[in-house]
Amino acid sequence: MEPTSHPGDILRETREAISEVLGKSLETMTVEKTVMGLFFTGIKLNSGEGGLCFTPIKSIPDAVCCPSSARVMPASGRLEGRKATRFLDEMFSGNPLKRTMGIALLNALSAECWKRKPPETYRISAGVDALEDMMLPEEGFVVVVGALAPAIKALKQRGKPFGILELDPSTLRADELEFLVPPEKAPGAVSRADLLVITGTTLINDTLEGLLEWRKPGAEIIVVGPTASMIPDAFFRRGVSILGGIRVTDADRVLSIIAEAGSGYHFFGKGADRVTISRLQETRRG
Length: 286
Known about the structure:
The chain is α/β, with parallel strands linked by helices. It contains twelve helices and ten strands.
């Protein structure tokens, strides 16, 4: 069967959805501040809205000395004041850091869209952690994509078989390695999962669309993390049930925290709040 989407399509479609809401004003929007922290990259728009994306440090192995680092991010020192559309245009250049900044910008622009045009077909629930709120099937098979500690901990306590897809096994605990699914067996594991819990960082490495192509019909799918904090239409069209992300409430404070190597533990409740995004017609369980 031919795939119905290609890597990067979710980001492209999200940009289009944002353009429809913001119209010509998108062309005049600029980026006031950028921070590329150890764990997260953040952007603040000139409108005051902010957005985050996971910083993919391991995807830039060449950045080990000044000359190679300069090649990875040649525009450093000249990003503030740039048009937002320029960041979006460079998102598919093949540079992982430009992709990261583009995603952070999509999240900030999504917040701007929600401010101007509140959602009509989906609900944004503030203060709700999608992983803490999720209902695990008693007997169904679950696959976790990424080292999502809260989900993995809950599944270990459930005491039933499950699978973990993770490119870097060193991020898992010793007692979690038995659940690790080899890459060649990933399609089979995903296609029999009743629940898929996927890290938003799959947007960075272009694997999310492929994972969603493998899904079992009727499976519940949760995509989580600050990276996946954007207009959800493109996700929902591909079977995603819930996005669990964040909403930046104080961009300056959050950017200051991540500039000091801060993570979610440092900025939740201090400039950013957890949110879940779900379809209006779906009734929350639990």
